[in-house]
Every structure is written in C-alpha cells, then in structure tokens.
Amino acid sequence: MLALNAIGKTYPNGVQALERFTAEIRLGEIVAIIGGSGCGKSTLLRAIAGLDRATAGTVTLDDVAISAPHAKIGIIFQEPRLLPWLSVADNIAFGLSDPPAGARRERVARALTRVGLADKADAWPRELSGGQAQRVAIARALVPQPEVLLLDEPFSALDAFTRRDLQDHLLDLWADMRPTVALVTHDVDEAVVLADRVLVMRPRPGRLFDEININLGRPRARNSPLFDDFTRRVMTALDRSLDRDVLDRDTKSTAGQAMWW
Amino acid sequence: MAMTVELPALEQTEGIARSAWSVRLRRYAGPALGLLLPLGVALVWEIVVWLGFSSGRLVPPPSKVLATIVELARSGELIRHILATLTRVAMGFGLGVIAGTVLGAISGYWALARRLLDPTVQALRAIPSIAWVPLFILWLGIFETSKVALIAVGVFFPVYLGVLGAILSVDRKIVEVGRIFRLSGPAMIRRILLPAVLPAYVVSLRVGLGLGWMFVVAAEFMGASEGLGYLLIDGQQLGKPAQILAAIVIFAILGKSTDWLIEITTAPLLRWQDAFGRQGGVA
Fold first, then answer.
1. In the sheet where A64-65 sits, what is the strand order?
2. pLDDT tens track for B89-143
3. Would you kindly state where each structural domain of chain A is located, as residue ranges?
4. Residue A203 has what pLDDT?
5. pTM for the full model?
6. Do B174 and A81 touch (CB under 8 A)?
7. Is B267 part of the contact surface with chain A (CB cutoff 8 Å)?
8. Which CATH code is given to the segment(s) B62-273?
9. What CATH number has the domain spanning A1-72+180-222+232-261?
10. Touching check for A95 and chain B: CB below 8 Å?
C-alpha cells in the first residue's frame, strides 16, 4: 500500500505548494489526482517518485519511507523523455541493469510487441510520432515491473484519438501486472475512464478537496449514461474546489466538457 | 510576366531528363566548390609571375612551392619533419583531451568539485599559454617533453571548458530519467551526461586540435632540430620563402585532414541527432 501522510511542500521562496495531503492507495488500485493548475498535483507526484523531497509529512510504500527514487516505483512523464542517442529497444532496456543480456533482450522484445512497436526496435526516437514515443516511455517504465506506476499528465500532449487509444492501451497493460497507479491529469474524461477513485485537489495551497469513487466495471463505455453521471460529479467537485458557481450540469450543453483545463 | 510563368515549367521538363546526371554532379559539387577559391588564387598568382608582373622572389609561385615540396619529399626530409610534428601533436592532443575530459566531467557533475576546481582552472586559462614556455623549458628540458606539455596545455582548456559547459546545460528532464532509474554518479556521467554532450564535445575536440596545431609551431620555434616548425625557422634564416610556404601548405593539409578525421570518426556516434545541420542547413 502506498501511504501519503500529511505531505506538505513549501518552496524556498515561501510559496506553499502542498498542505497536509493525506491519502492511501491500495495495491492494484488506480487513483486519478485532478485539480486546477497550480494545485500542486505534479509536486505531489514528484514527491512520491522521490525526485523532490516533501518539506513535511512522509511517503511510505509498504511501511518503507520513500525519500529518493525507488526500484519499485516507476514514472511516466508528460513528455516521453526518451534518450535520443539510444535506439527504441535500448531505451526500453535502459532501466534493466542486472539480468543477463539474453533474458534482457527477450523482455525488451516482449515489451515492444506488447506496445505494438515490434517493428520499431532499431529506430531512433526522432523517427517516432508523439504517440509512439509515449508508448516507448510506457514500455520503459513497465519493463522493470514496478509495484507503483506514477503518471504525470501522460497523454496531455497528444491528439484526442491517440489519447483515447493510449488510455485503453494503458488499462490493457495494467491488467497484466496490476500495479498501483497514481495518475495526475486535468482531463476529467481521462480520470473517469481510468480510475477506481478520483481525488480532487484545491489550489493555493494544494490540499485534498474531495474524493469520488468511480463504481464502474471495466471496460467502460465512454458514452454510457452512468459514465456521464460520474463525469458530471467530478466536474461539479472541480468547480466547487475553485469556488465557482456550480452550474446545473444536467441542463447545460456538454460541449467542451471532455477536457477540463 | 510571361517569363516568370514559363521558367518553372521549362526547368521541370529539363530537370527530369538530366536528373541522373545532376545527382552525380551534386555529390562532387560540394567539395569542388570549396576548392574553387584557393585554386583560383594560386592560378592567378602563377600567371602573374609567369607573365613577369612580379619576380616572385618573396612570394614564390605555386609551381616553385610544389617543386620544393617534391624535393623535400625525395630526400626523405619531408616525412621525417611531418612525423616529428605529428607525433608531438598526437601526444599533446591525447594528454590534453584526457585531462580536459576527466576534469571537465568531474567539475560539471559535482558542484563541490566545480567550486573547488573551476576558479583555479579559469585563472590558469587567463594566462597566455606561450607564457609557460620558459618555465616548461626549465622544468622539462629543451627536448620533447616541454613541447608536448605546451601542446597539451593548449588543448586542455577548450576541451575542459567544452565538457563543463555542455554538462551544465544538459536537459534536466533527461537527467531525471537517470535519477528515476537510480544511476550512480559515474553511471550518470557515462550513460546520460557524456552521450548528451557528445555533439558539443566533438566541437571542443576540433577546437582543441586546432589549438594543438597552433602550439606545435610555437613549441618548434623554441629550438627544434626537426619538425615543420623547424622548416619555417630554417626557411626564414636561410631566406627560402618557398620552403616556408611549403611548410605552411603542409600544415594546412595536415590540419584539415586531422580535423576531417575527427569529423568522420565521430559521425557514426552522432547519427541519432535530430538537428538543423543534419539536413545540410539552408542551401
């Protein structure tokens, strides 16, 4: 279990990005963290990853405190962040250090096939499209078989079709190993498609505001009434988190609803 | 008006007919274009002297320079001088590159090392390297060691500075990938930082090599009995401008070919680059 205990982050210039954020994420659960810009959701994710240190509180994974990058925690960033001087296959193998070369090659080949890029093993990252590059980044994070997978707005730079495609693909990959997933996003649709639970954050300073369980089976049909219902509930919580007037979403047009900025 | 409309159409039909020809032409056109200027100047000078507009005594015509080179080559002198100079440059360059790379990488990666080391290195860099000559001769003697040391000093600074600056400007996002996979310090340098700085590193190697060729002349001016620098001094003292020019031409050829050697040996390592220069730049 991944436990976040009263996490706070104050930057040296006095800006308080996070205040007493507490949550528990169960093994194999997918949790989406959503909130307005500047609500500290990326700060929170970086603290879990061990890239930045929280100034207050602790992150523990199965009762082990996390203060630096950990072998059991993988992360996928907003950008693919592939190493441009390594081929696609070598990029995926980057996180595998110990196993012998033969076993390593086999695991990389399997991962490439799994993300549908078997024919791109020897390509350079510059030859990939944005969606393909992000698939490689996903494979790179999953090949070391992390217990916890963190995603920092992983699909926000992609077009709508590719984004949908990769969301489904991610769920498919998740089903293989069932890692614990914490996903930071600003896309309500994405949160409802992927998550078991949505944590809504409130900005300045970043705090936990609301928590919505998405009691939907998988696979989820994006156009079912139940799906719309959950989307609306998350939207309403978001609006309240920003002290906006809560509109009656049932009667309003749904245009622009899919992407919540 | 009519002309501007017709031209592209004309070019297109002719272009198809000649395309095979033009591909072959284009492959050689680039290097040939570079040779146009020096060959043209040489030819003009040759003609000027041949027509008697100048005696060509202080600036001998290309034919005379060529004759000097051939003469030196035939007597075996030339190869001896070239080897002496090449050996000095190779040794000095090697030492300078190793020291510059190691120290540059260390002070690029560890902030503490940078604070300790960099101010001293920068202060030393401010000293004109030729100023070391008397000291090196006192310490290391008049022979090879002091010459190699001087060249190494000249090569060291651009390589050190290039590696240091390039490491400091490596994308944080890429470095974070290394941190996520928990690379140790040396592994971070080897697997992330050095490959990331490789394009900049090649440039600093080429700058360093250029300085190496510069300093070998300075080194050979201070009492050498062989080497291309010796040919220069010898030509000055005995009033043989053709010999001086011959040595200069050979310097140019050697400098250019060693630079080209760096370029082609590193090209396979830089195939991954997605840069403006790869497309050949703007024609």
1. A16-25, A2-10, A56-61, A64-65
2. 999 999 999 999 999 999 998 899 999 999 999 999 998 888 888 888 889 888 8
3. 1-72+180-222+232-261, 83-146
4. 83
5. 0.75
6. yes
7. no
8. 1.10.3720.10
9. 3.40.50.300
10. yes
